[in-house]
Amino acid sequence: MSRPSRLQRQILSLYRELLRAGRGKPGAEARVRAEFRQHAGLPRSDVLRIEYLYRRGKRQLQLLRSGHATAMGIFVRPRGPTEEAGGGTATPGPESPCGGTEARETRSGGR
């Protein structure tokens, strides 16, 4: 087995640091592990993507280490029954960051 590259050593170090920083914060360790597993299959040749994810991880580490972070979560849009079944129905409106649909307001002239 060959020696790990400098970037690989940095990523493993980041992984350990994120796990340490996430101790005692609900959801942090599971999120870190899931995120690293999700991207474990990235080809070594995709250096730009790997470096981007590394920088993103460093920023998340800074946030975890700051006194403001009490937990770590994921913002995702919950799937509806038609989306899970692969139905081709469109969603009723644009999604807001909170997971609901935004209400569009139209104004009629004169008021």
Helix-strand string: HHHH
Query: Low-confidence stretches at least 5 residues in length (pLDDT < 50)?
Result: 89-108
Continuous helix count: 4
Shape: globular
User: What is the CA–CA distance across the termini?
Assistant: 75 Å
* Overall SS class: mainly alpha
Question: Cα-atom Rg, whole angstroms?
Answer: 20 Å
Fraction of residues in helix: 40-55%
Overall average residue pLDDT = 75
Strand content: under 5%
Domain Complex 1 LYR protein: 9-62
Subcellular location: Mitochondrion matrix
Region (Disordered): 77-111
Organism: Cricetulus griseus (Chinese hamster)
Outline the structure in words.
- This protein is mostly helical and 111 residues long.
- It has a domain of 60 residues.
- The chain is built from 4 helices and no strands.
- Helix 1 packs antiparallel against helix 2 and helix 1 packs parallel to helix 3.
Structure keywords:
globular
